[in-house]
Amino acid sequence: MVIAANKNDILDAFLFVYFRWLTRRAFHTLACRGLENLRNLPHDRPILLFCNHTNWWDGLIVYLLTRQMAHKAGYCMMEEKQLKHYRFFTWLGAFSVDLSSPLRSAASLRYAQRLLQKNETAIWIFPQGKLCRQNEPVEIRPGTDYLAKSSPHALLVPVAMRYDFFREDRPNVLIEVGRPFPAVECDEGRIAQECNEVFARVSRAAMDQDLTGFEPLFSPRLTINKRWEWIKLAATGRLREFSPSN
To answer: With CB atoms 3.0 to 4.6 Å apart as the test, which of 100, 107, 170, 195 could cross-link to 138 if both were Cys?
Structure first.
């Protein structure tokens, strides 16, 4: 039996404030390239979003990204044993999948198919089905292609994330959102190809420490040395010279 989503707008609003604070405290910044691909999604088509999965933070960052699709009702497929521990995620749109059981996995796919019958639906999926090392190529579980092909009206969106230290005391999260493409164009291997292409782009940006084209989801936290630099520049009337990054 699937643990169904039980979306609650009031609890969602409170948890958004808390998770945003928690994320800001943990990271220097969340920087995203391709946000327009989320903000400009059509109202008249359901959306399937695919993202690589490397650690616990992925779910919270996906949740924050959903706020960039204000015209969509966000859902996320979550491992059943984790959702049993964190039931409050159902209030935000999480529903369960048990990958250890083909029958129970099929029930989760049918639940997702029903959600995708509504144009306002946007479902996030971690198609690897498990936590993987950050540099691993994205491999897609078979049910992912099936869900896409059984929802021909949907648009598919590849997303990739990386966690990297640059020159600050906290890591940065770099996010790359690819261009949407119709599910009817989803040939065998297309989802894996698109996911690996966006991951390659965000990986190059991380290796080069180049944030050109990236938009912060919130203002970067200032490191200790940057706070001191701000004070010195403010005292001498030179704040125009200040940069929040080292």
So the answer is: 195
Q: CB under 8 Å to 224, separation ≥6 — which residues?
A: 169
Query: In the block, which residue shows the tokens 């707008």?
Result: 9
Task: Locate all alpha helices (DSSP H) within the chain, ordered by sequence.
Answer: 9-26, 36-39, 57-66, 80-85, 102-115, 142-149, 190-208, 224-235
Report how far residue 39's alpha carbon sits from residue 21's, in angstroms, rounded to the nearest whole number. 22
Question: CA 18, CA 24: separation in Å to the nearest integer?
Answer: 10
Give the Cα separation of 227 and 213 in Å (integer).
Answer: 25
- Summarised one tens digit per residue, pLDDT across range 60-118 is 999 999 999 989 999 999 999 999 999 999 999 999 999 888 888 999 999 999 999 99
From residue 164, how far is each of 27, 67, 168, 210 by CA, in Å? 10, 23, 10, 12
Kindly list the structural domains of the chain, giving each domain's residue range(s) and its CATH number in brackets, ordered by start. 9-241 (3.40.1130)
